[in-house]
Amino acid sequence: MTFVVKDLDGEYSLVMEGIVDLARPTANEMPATTIEFVVEDETPPVHDDFSAVIYNASDEDQMIKVDFGEAMATEGVYAVTNLENYVIKANIISGSTVDYELSEIADAVSINVVDGGEAVEIWIELEDDSEDGLDLKDLGTTTEEGITVGRVADLEGNYTEDYGADIEVSNQGTVGFGTVEATAVDTIEVTFDDELANIVSEDFQLLVSGTTIGVIADIDTELNDDDQTVLIFTLVDAYELNQDGTGPDGKAVTFSVIDTGSENISENIYGEKVAPGEKAADDKIAPALLVIDGGDYDEEDEVYVDAATGDVITLHFGEDIEKTSVSLNTFEVGGGDYEVTAVSVTTDATIELTVDNAGNEDLVGVSVDQISGIRDGEDNVTTGISTEVTSVKPTPN
User: Would you say 176 and 190 are in contact if contact means Cβ atoms under 8 Å apart?
Assistant: First the structure.
């Protein structure tokens, strides 16, 4: 067998179970086997994947951040901490772009490895603070200026094919947000493009049809695997989203960073402020059964049997279910005692299971357990439903 995979690096385990040979008359099953193996990174870094941003140009804390996109070597001649690997191309004297080798002005330069080894911060003192200092006020404003990065290596020792390349330097900007997701009926999560070091709740609001809705009970934060800040909005109990992510009135709920010019004070560690903008919440809520009200049957009971037939069990969800995700094997009734002979997905957010109930037995209290996942129209998957028939839908008079 040959497996083709991408972007593996590190130690892995391959588990093989249930493999049977073709021997006749009886097949022989191979014992469960685990193979440990190591994948080494042999792909060299590429200068075109590098980027650079200058922060606080012409201030005493001016700094160039160079991002390599992967963990890099910090020791040796190809180390990203080696100042000999950097040349600043800057228009310090009006009308003239000059190359400044950082190793030649080392007394005015300090370099820090950040972001898990994937980037460096190069701090350069001003002329007023050091004999070798530079005022980089124009760096990032013209294509002639920038930084040259020499041959550098990644953490595995793979070094760039080119001996060096010019990297355009961008000016610091703002922090945008990528995804806005309704993840539960009381939760909206917003993922920013960077980690926010300072968060002020007044910078953010939720809107419906352009109008602010005061339904935020709490704001929590966490960092995802990409070190991006995720704002988690918990909504007040009286305001519950529909399972399709819309508000109680069926209209989209929108997250907004308030446009107050330079007044926004939520920012990352480099002082880049959150960018104004807004986006409607995407539906990431998995379909769920409606809550049991208890007592006799009503139209919102989650699981009921039709008295007219005695063998059709209806599961009532809070949103429409994707028909192709449901089959005869999706649910097990009565622990398998009642065979599911037909299944139907209706347009009113229900799944109907027809079971073999030849004895016309009372199905109230009979278990209904989910065997395979079902999904809504946005591919949100629900698994693990375990419930029972709660009532009988009476026969119409």
Answer: no
Structure-token pair, residue 254: 């929108």
How far apart are the C-alpha atoms of 259 and 275, rounded to whole Å? 8
Number of residues written out for the chain: 397
Contact 356, 260 (CB under 8 A): no
pLDDT in tens, 195-232: 999 999 999 999 998 898 989 999 999 999 989 999 99
Dihedral pair phi/psi, residue 12, rounded to 5°: -140, 165
Q: Which residues contact 109 (CB under 8 A, 6 or more apart)?
A: 83, 102, 122, 123, 124, 125, 132
Q: What is the pLDDT of residues 286-322, one digit of tens each?
A: 999 886 555 455 555 578 887 777 899 999 899 999 9
Name the class of domain 47-171: mainly beta
Is the distance from CB of 177 to CB of 188 less than 8 angstroms? Answer: no
pTM of the model: 0.77
Tell me whether the CATH fold assigned to 47-171 matches the one assigned to 303-393: yes
CATH 2.10.260.10 is the classification of domain 303-393: no
Cα–Cα distance between 289 and 295 in angstroms, integer? 17
What share of the chain has pLDDT > 70, as a percent? 89
